[in-house]
Protein: Enoyl-CoA hydratase
Organism: Kribbella sindirgiensis
Amino acid sequence: MSDSVLYAVDAGVATVTLNRPDAMNALDTPTKVLLRDTILGAADDPAVRVVVLTGTGRAFCVGQDLKEHIGLLQANDQAALWSTVPDHFAPIALALAEMPKPVIAAINGVAAGAGASMAFACDFRVVADTAGFNLAFTGIALSCDTGISWTLPRLIGHAKALELLYFPRTVPAGESLDLGLATSVVPAADLETAVAELAAKLAAGPTVAYGAVRQSLGYSASHTLAEALVFEAGKMQQTGATEDHHNAVESFVAKTKPTFTGR
């Protein structure tokens, strides 16, 4: 089995680590397949309450492996060239954005192309001060993928999203924070600790409610108010039936701190 994607679960936190440091965690086909299946597995695992996505080495992920891409172009393998978008990149984006649990991107280095897209599909982007984002697609005369056309304008607005996609450049950590691409920026040496603290806080919280909230926000982005109200009602009923809700209400009445189990 390939070790290009590492997976570990500890105290309800699943860490998915891209592990091709010599290739700056570029996504060749075996890595995309493994990453997709790993993220889908984490989304479905009831023992996982929070997911962290990160990379090894000096990059978070630079997107599509261009060495593999060039080979497919030279071979004129149209099926392999473009089926990767619906077969790999789209399922990864959907799983990151829609799974019913919080997702953190720990940006240890540059996140470019689909790497940036994956980060933007997460709830939180904790960024090392040495890292940055590059929306590299048009730099190689391609359109954008992995959901960035949906996520990016919702983070920073249509006009700025268009600018960054038209004129790719590396947006450093500080500017990323100012724009809203980053949730927080920390010294590179503190990234692991900062992410662990955030993940632990989320894992100790009402994770069913967190999942319902993120799904409600996602749903509302492409539906009418009336439809969103119906969706909200369903999620309210779902979360109202959880042990976490009942325990929290009892704790409120008793003036004690609730303990959440994600059930």
User: Anything to note?
Assistant: The longest helix spans residues 78-98. Residues 52 and 235 are 24 Å apart (CA to CA). The radius of gyration is 19 Å.
